[in-house]
Amino acid sequence: MATILVLHGPNLNLLGSREVNHYGHHSLQTINSALNDLANQLGHTLLIQQSNHEGVLIDHIHAASQKIDFIIINPASLTHTSISLRDALLAVAIPFVEVHLSNIYRRETFRHHSYLSDIAVGTMTGLGHQSYLLALRYAHSHLSNTNPDTTGANATWTCEKSEN
Fold it and tell me: CA–CA separation, 121 vs 134, rounded Å?
C-alpha cells in the first residue's frame, strides 16, 4: 500500500460552480470522494490538500519528502507562473502527475506553458474529473511497476471532454 498526495491549487475549492464550461459540474468534494473510493479499491491511502496559496502548497510538498510515494497535483493557474512549485517538486524528487480538468492547449495562449510538465512523469489534461481518476490509476501502475511505458519517456494524455 502506497501513500499518495493529491494537491489542488488555487480556486479549485470553487469547482462545480466556477466556469462550468471549462471545469465541469463536479465539486471538489465529489472529486475527492471518487478519488478516495478508487484509492481504497487499489489499496492506497490518499492525503488530499487544497490551497489558494502557493506557499502552503510548497509546504505540503516539502512535508511529503519522507512519507509520500507519489503526488497528483493540479496546480491550477500556478501551472503557468510558479517556478517555486517546480523547485519544490524537484527538491523532494517524488514522482508526480500534473492534472488539469480543462484542455489547457485549447484555451488562452498563456495557459499553454507549464513549468511542471517537463519534470512530471506524465500529464492528464482535458478529461474533466476523469483526469484525476486516470492519474490515480497511473500512479497505481507506476508504483506497482506495471507501467507499460518502459522507455522512461514522459506521457501526456490530452483529450477534449465531451460532457461535464
Answer: 13
